[in-house]
Amino acid sequence: MTSDYGLEMKFCRLGEDVAVKEGCRIEGYASYFGITDQGGDVVVSGAYGKSLARLKDQGRAVKMLWQHDPAQPIGVWDEIVEDGRGLRVKGRILTEVEKGREAAALVAAGAIDGLSIGYRTVTAEKDAKGQRLLREVELWEVSLVTFPMLPEARVGAKGDALGVTDLHELAALFDEARRALAGK
Q1: Which of 7, 66, 73, 125 lies at a C-alpha separation of 20 to 30 Å from 25?
Q2: What 3-state DSSP class applies to 23?
Q3: In a structure prediction context, what are the per-residue pLDDT tens digits for the chain, which is 184 residues long?
Q4: Domain boundaries, the chain
Q5: First and final C-alpha spacing in the chain
């Protein structure tokens, strides 16, 4: 998905490693490397490195937004790092903000279970399968969202995370529903 400002967005369900901790702390993966999302894109290991280093050098931070709305910041990301699996995030939803209180309640209840990244593509190429390989991106924000694009991971509130088998079954159900709605 691309916004009017050229900002692209990738959606990822909060993963089995993502949990709500101590009320309003969340952590997990906002993006996984090497997994094709529903838009046909694959983020390559190292794609976020330069952007994260540049932000750190400039004393700036990736924003935590509600549903990609720049007018609705809902918290802060205390830590964002690339590791062998993807883009790992740790942060706090701020309940002093009205939308933050709502977001914390929805995440805790399991009604919201997605993360989505907002970024600008710096370097990408098509592979033999026609997938776009994102080699370098400029990361702007990570949002809590209703409908993520990468269904391989989900959030559990305080240890209620789904296992890998459940995730694949859920992804298959979403794919089946999408095909049925499209009349295929």
Answers
A1: 7
A2: coil
A3: 455 556 676 555 555 544 444 558 998 889 999 999 888 999 999 999 999 999 999 999 999 999 999 999 999 999 999 999 999 999 999 999 999 999 999 998 888 888 889 999 999 999 999 999 999 999 999 999 887 776 654 443 333 343 333 444 445 555 565 566 676 5
A4: 8-182
A5: 23
Q: Which two tokens stand for residue 22?
A: 């101590």
Half-sphere exposure of residue 86, counting CA atoms within 13 Å on the CB side?
24
User: Which residues, other chains included, contact 177 with Cβ-Cβ below 8 Å and sequence gap of 6+?
Assistant: none
17 closest CA partner among 115, 92, 135? 115
Pairing of strands 41-43, 132-145: parallel
Q: What is the pTM of this model?
A: 0.73
Helices (H), 20-140: 49-57, 98-109
Report the amino acid identity of residue 141: E
Say how far apart CA 145 and CA 30 lie, in whole Å: 11
Residue 145 to residue 11: CA distance in whole angstroms: 8
Q: Which of 23, 174, 25, 10 is nearest to 87 (CA)?
A: 10
For 54, 56, 118, 127, 131, the CA distances from 60, given in Å and listed in that order, are 9, 6, 16, 33, 32
> Tokens 């776009």 sit at which residue?
132
